[in-house]
Amino acid sequence: MLSLSFIRENPDIVRAAIVNKSVKIDFDAFLVLDEKKKTMQQKVETLRAKRNELSSSLKNPPAIAKSPDGNIIVPSPFKKGVMPDPAILEEAKKLKDELQTLEKEYEVIEAEHIALLKQIPNIPTEDTPIGHSEEENVVLVEWGKIPEFSFKVRDHAEIAAIHGWIDKERAANVAGSRFAYLMGDLVLLQFALMQWVMNTLTNEEILKTIIKNLGLKVSSKPFTPILPPYMIRTELYDAMDRLEPREDRYKIE
Question: Which region holds residue 252: left if phi is over 0, alpha if psi is between -120 and 50, else beta?
Answer without folding.
Answer: beta
